[in-house]
Design goal:
Elements lengths: L1 E12 L2 E13 L4 E5 L6 H8 L7 E6 L9 H11 E4 L11 H6 L8 H14 L15 H13 L5 E5 L7 H17 L3 E5 L3 H5 L4 E5 L2 E4 L4 H5 L4
Parallel strand pairs: 3-7, 3-8, 5-6, 6-7
Antiparallel strand pairs: 1-2, 1-4, 8-9
Helix pairs in contact: 4-5, 5-6
The structure holds adenosine-5'-triphosphate and magnesium ion (MG).
Length: 233
């Protein structure tokens, strides 16, 4: 369970504090998936960073599986993030000198026995359709393939929470659909919570639930039939 209450975030700027999140509340249970939309600069990445414990809120709380990560000392917070949260960003952030298999194994360097880790990495790479690319370097993959490696890497430690910030922003429509479908399918199968930020109405529509960030608050997004019929997604 992910519980977010009264989340606020201000950034200090030269012209005074910039209030980006103005009180966000939501709950997501294991296995739930939500797409978050909203204008550029509305605070979507800021929210994901805080929920992902990469940044701290100005006030408010985040609880994941009944743990308030911001109460943990820094080394424990890092371990919590590594074990319980998976990230997929717009850029893949794969290490260019490492193979596909090695990239997926990177978050497990402090994890269980090597044989088990490698078994899971191979399984996930098979699930994302890359069993035939284990020894390739990222530069030898297509953009869609790189993002599929990033999805496998995000899931390697069986996180309860999977966060994706415009994971298909750099992809063509077909690769984008494939990556979005994999995120949904694997998160459901692993019983993880999935939060995906996207500018694509088409992608958002493929999610069971949608929310919109507007003026620093998050509200359910009702997709009207007019929006659904729009050719400009
Ligand atoms: N470290 C920071 N210091 C000051 N302002 C920041 C900082 N990070 C983000 N902001 C501001 O906070 C606002 C929200 O930024 P954020 O990146 O969360 O937007 P977003 O909704 O993800 O936008 P996009 O769709 O373009 O990715 C923006 O106005 C941005 O300029
Ligand atoms: Mg963003």
């Amino acid at each position: 369970m992910l519980t977010v209450r009264g989340l606020r975030k201000e950034f200090p700027t030269r012209s005074g504090p910039l209030e980006v999140l103005r009180g966000i509340d939501f709950d997501l249970a294991r296995g739930e998936a939500v797409a978050v939309m909203g204008p550029s600069g509305s605070g979507k990445s800021t929210l994901l960073h805080i929920v992902g414990t990469l940044d701290r809120p100005t006030s408010g709380t985040v609880r994941l599986e009944d743990i308030d990560p911001f109460q943990l000392p820094e080394p424990e917070l890092a371990a919590f993030r590594n074990r319980r949260i998976g990230f997929v960003f717009q850029d893949h952030y794969l290490l260019p000198q490492c193979s596909v298999l090695e990239n997926v194994l990177i978050p497990t360097l402090v994890g269980p026995a090597r044989v088990e880790r490698e078994k899971r990495a191979r399984y996930l790479l098979e699930r994302v359709g890359l069993a035939h690319r284990l020894r390739h370097r990222p530069s030898e993959l297509s953009g869609g393939e790189r993002q599929r490696v990033a999805v496998a890497r995000a899931l390697i430690n069986q996180p309860g929470l999977l966060l994706a910030d415009e994971p298909t922003g750099n992809l063509d429509r077909r690769s984008a659909q494939a990556v979005a479908a994999l995120l949904l399918e694997l998160a459901a199968q692993e019983n993880a919570i999935l939060i995906t930020v996207t500018h694509s109405l088409e992608l958002a529509r493929s999610f069971p639930r949608q929310m919109q960030m507007l003026d620093g608050t998050l509200a359910p997004l009702v997709l009207s039939s007019a929006q659904e019929a729009s050719p400009c997604t």
